[in-house]
Amino acid sequence: MPSPKAKNNGGRSGSVPGMSTNGRYEFMSLSRSPPPHLLQRQGSDPTSARLRASESPTRRRGSGSSNASSSSATGAQQLPEEDCMRLNPSFVGIALSSLLAIDLWLSKRLGVCACEDSSWGSIRPLMKLVEISGHGIPWLAGALYCLYKSDSAAGQEVMLNLLMALVLDLVLVTMVKAMVRRRRPSHNRMDMFATFSVDRYSFPSGHATRAAMCARFLLAHLVLAAPLRVLVLLWATLVGFSRVLLGRHNVTDVVFGFGMGYCQYNLVEALWVSPVGLQLMMGQLG
């Protein structure tokens, strides 16, 4: 007759995973694969197998890392170009920004005649006279008058080339202003003499270019005494300073204008009209 105890043990061993047929428990290692009878029970439930596979730590780590990498790649692709430039500024960009900040600060500090209430507002009328002396209209009118009144061929040659130089200066300055389109300083008062549409821009200073070019022209083609030569240089310098003192231009506008006017004279010399060319032009006009 079979023993009830053995029967009960056999029944428990069939219902409890990991228990052997002799009634002793067997401990399974996590590194080893489970026994075949456990694999059969686990494989018999496909729903629980899928859930366990989806909850696997390795699968979670893999899916997390793939999601993070895909999101970072998407973020890198969607990062605007201006943000990249802002995060990685170049040395040239930093240098230009610093120079612009210094230029604006210095120009505002030197604008002591920008209005009557400024610290040097009492000499504003004098600075406006200097401004008119460097304007293009008086120079064009004076060159035309001297060309008309000149009796010698040499005088007509000089005045004609001066007139051409003034027209060339107006054309070049207008082109540069239209391309750069830098606004005038905020403390400037738009009460200038005979302004045009392009005069709302400040870079470069047309007065500075004209003063530098005309100073070189007069010193090269007119016989002047030493005191007069010094006065010509002082006039050109004062015209440039008046642009900053009146608040019309920034410092860099005037500095670039002086350099541009100095180089314009070289172009005038290269395009110089000789007496023979002058006679041909006069003959065609006559």
Can you offer a commentary on this structure?
With 286 residues, this protein is mostly helical. Helix content is 69%, strand content 0%. It has 13 helices and no strands. Helix 9 (153-180) packs across helix 12 (251-270). The longest helix has 28 residues, at 153-180. The chain is globular. The N and C termini lie far apart (151 Å). This is Polyisoprenoid diphosphate/phosphate phosphohydrolase PLPP6. Keywords: Endoplasmic reticulum, Hydrolase, Lipid metabolism, Membrane, Nucleus, Transmembrane, Transmembrane helix. InterPro entries: PAP2/HPO (IPR000326), PAP2/HPO_sf (IPR036938). Residues 1-80 are annotated as: Disordered.
List keywords for this structure.
about 70% helix; nucleus; endoplasmic reticulum; hydrolase
How would you sum up this structure in a few lines?
The chain is mainly α and 286 residues long. It has helices at 4-15, 36-43, 46-54, 57-78, 81-87, 91-110, 124-133, 136-149, 153-180, 206-221, 226-245, 251-270, 275-285. The termini are far apart.
The end-to-end span amounts to 151 Å
Major sheet: none
Low-confidence stretches: 1-18, 56-62, 68-76, 79-85
Strand content: under 5%
By helix and strand content, what is the structural category?
A: mainly alpha
Order of helices and strands: HHHHHHHHHHHHH
Rg computed from alpha carbons, rounded to a whole number of angstroms? 44 Å
